[in-house]
Amino acid sequence: MKFVIVLAVLLGITAAKYNPENCEVCITFLTKFRAHLDGLSSDIQKNTDKIEKELRTSCKTTQPKDERFCWYIGATATSATGMIQTVTKPLSFHKPVDKICGDLYKKDNQICDLKYEKQIDLKTVNIKKLKVKELKKILEQNGQDCKGCTEKSEYVKKVEAIAKQQGRTEL
Fold first, then answer.
1. Quick one: DSSP state of residue 75?
2. Residues 44, 47, 53, 56: is their CA dihedral positive or negative?
3. Which of 57, 63, 50, 48 is nearest to 94 (CA)?
4. Which of 64, 83, 126, 143 is buried deepest, with most CB atoms within 10 A?
């Protein structure tokens, strides 16, 4: 009997609780999707099959972290799991998004491990102090590359040009 109590206490201590603040991608994506559904007819909003179709369509045109979330819930063609009903059914009766994410967390806590990458504000950052990795990320986010660049100064020049395009006046 003591063993069962000790085991229950240990499991209770080690089990992480769901915290909506730590489930950024799930809550953000489902909030945007909920807003998309609200703009559609009530016929679609109440039909789980139609919601699933809309969700799969939305997942085809997402950014990488949202795409990973879609993969986790089974809304992409390459998904290994099938938790999409855990999302579509509650959406059909307007369950709050944070509660849906909590249900998903109970099934697979990796869903709340997804985080958006921190955006670098080119208008205020000191570009010369950024690491080459960060400079490359900025170039990638703006659809540019720096083929043949070998020195950090070459990356800095390219990023400074992007910053000027985005309205930065002082470099």
1. -
2. positive
3. 48
4. 83
Helical pair 152-165 and 132-141, crossing angle rounded to 10 deg:
40
CA 94 to chain centre: 21
Mean pLDDT of the chain: 85
How high is the pLDDT of residue 139?
A: 87
CA–CA separation, 114 and 86 (whole Å): 18
Rounded CA gap, 167 and 124, in Å?
11
Question: Which has the closest alpha carbon to 71: 83, 63, 79?
Answer: 79
- Quick check: 15 pLDDT over 70? no
Neighbours of 88 (CB within 10 A): 22
- C-alpha neighbours within 13 Å on the C-beta side of residue 68: 12
Tell me the pLDDT tens digit for each residue of 108-145: 888 899 888 877 878 888 889 999 998 988 888 888 88
